[in-house]
Amino acid sequence: MTQNISFTPEHKQLSSIFGENTRYVIPSYQRAYSWESTGKSDKNNQLNNLWDDLVDFFDANKDKTDEYFIGSMVAISKNDNNERYFEVVDGQQRITTLLLLFGAMKCFLVKQKGVDDGKSKDFLDFLEGAIKEFEILIYNKKVKGISFIPELKLKINRDYGYDFNEYFKNLIDCKDGKTQKDLLAENEKIINRYKVNYQFFFQKIEEMFLDKGCFTEDKAQLFSQFAQFLRIRVAMIVITTPSFNSAYFIFEVLNNRGLPLSNKDLTRNLVISEFIKAGFSEVDAAQKWYELEENYLFPQDFIGRWVESKKAAQQQFSAFNDLEKLYKENYKDTLSQKAIEIFYEDFKTDLYYFDFFEDTSKIEDKCLAYKIEFLKKTNNLRYTTNFILAAMRYFKFNGQTNDAFYDLLNIYEIFILYTLLTPYKRFSSIKVYEAIKELNQTNLSVANSVLKLENSDEQGLKNLISGKLTDNYLGKLLISKYFWIRECNEDDVVEVLLDFDKATLEHIFPQTPTGETNWADRKKFPKSFVDDFTYKIGNMTLLTHKVNATIKNGDFKLKKQPEYQKTKLNLTVELGNLPDIDITYLYARQEQIVNTLYSYYF
């Protein structure tokens, strides 16, 4: 049943969203602030992704007026003592994070202002003016007596024994956040996110805008350009409504149906209406669309991936708007076909390719299927999907063995893996989109050269593969790669499938061995070995079932029977068949795994 709701969607730049006397309230029923910056996956890496996207878009569009679309916000318009404010129903993670970014940029300027390095009066005036511009975004001026005091534009109504507003404002005010003692564990996690994320932005800003530790005039000019980009060219769709019921309904629609599905709905309407304009009956026009939905997987995010793989660039607004622009600019009537027919065939062909990406069991070449499965797990899924779709389009991929396609994916995989394993290295989508552009222009050799690592970087990747892997996800990723390489070379009729998401990483020599086990024998396992080897890939394997934590830290004989023998994965079963284990075997295993990976990549 259709609900009669009243709402106002507006396309707004951040300068408008954080305009004068704008107030936002995070209601107490909202979940706590949860975005993080500590990892490399989409679930604990939201700040890295946001920062990378903003910087990449800024770098690629310095001399343009294109906008970066940062998402949507749903809010209830309210009044309190004749003062208007917005209660945020959806979008609190973005708006809180943006204020942390603005605060970090302001505090960076404050710090530079305090550096006594002979700055000119003009430079000091610039700093003062830039600080005020950020203060306009961050604070409202509240009248108190005969003076004005700055009031943060965001209020967090989450009072579980702690005032989050005070701590949040301290960070934005460039003060070290001080917390009270005996905090609840959950509250401590929340405020730590604020602090760590603020520090993340501050560090990134220093890396980008300091030249050998100095804030030069050239860097100040770049800073000013970036700040202007944030204020004027970063936009959000803000949906305001007068009631909680209507706001919650919109929130449910956006979250249950999702913006990609809405893009899909709009694309369906475009396709059907264009076919009708081309002279098809309504029934035939509708059937054209339903053939796509019935014959292909057609997931919700395909529209966005198709647009970005065709444009070789990020979406400018919504995926549908970009798709419509692509259609109008690139598809024209010919003597034999209407524009919509040409578009439809292109779109359908790419859906055919996308099915291979979504369901790699349809690929007959299992080595190629394993490679794509691995790439799908490397935490850059958006760009990987765009790239592989463009590559499949270039090669007219049909699921069969294709050596040139395999070689291209290998270069891309090395590029991605180097970024993923190198500490503090920022992933940049610029090279990926550059390679996609070359593929779209049928320049395969150039696309290869864009992504190929320098010799020194290849050596660096070798060192990273053979070194310590303290991030369990990266360890799991590499040992899974070793498994897939082995499976690729097996000619057995029965294929062993690895469910990566369900498998768990196992350290053969435990990370925390107990004193009662043989792992604590320092004659058998010297401290030098423990310090050097615990987090190397030779000490890692995979388990496909749940193992009791006590057993995981127990003697090798306890671990191997029956735990290692329960799994169907050969690399773990062969451990379970050993009578015992020592450092000689583990070092040999390290060498074997590392050499296998080297041979595969290099």
Write the layout of secondary structure elements.
Layout: E1 8-13, H1 14-17, E2 24-26, H2 46-60, E3 68-80, E4 83-90, H3 92-113, H4 121-138, E5 139-144, E6 147-152, E7 154-156, H5 164-172, H6 185-209, H7 217-233, E8 234-241, H8 244-277, H9 282-295, H10 302-311, H11 319-330, H12 339-358, H13 366-376, H14 381-395, H15 403-421, H16 429-440, H17 444-451, H18 455-466, H19 472-489, E9 504-507, H20 527-533, E10 540-543, H21 549-552, H22 556-566, H23 570-576, H24 583-601
Parallel strand pairs: 2-4, 2-7, 3-8
Antiparallel strand pairs: 1-8, 3-4, 5-6, 9-10
Helix pairs in contact: 3-4, 3-6, 5-6, 8-9, 8-11, 10-11, 10-14, 12-14, 13-15, 13-19, 14-15, 14-16, 15-17, 15-18, 16-17, 19-24, 22-23
Share of helix, binned? 55-70%
Strand order of the largest sheet: 1-8-3-4-2-7
Number of helix segments?
A: 24
Cα-atom Rg, whole angstroms? Answer: 28 Å
Main beta sheet: 6 strands, mixed
Number of strands: 10
**Helix-and-strand structural type:** alpha/beta
Q: Can you tell me the overall shape? A: globular
Cα separation of the termini: 59 Å
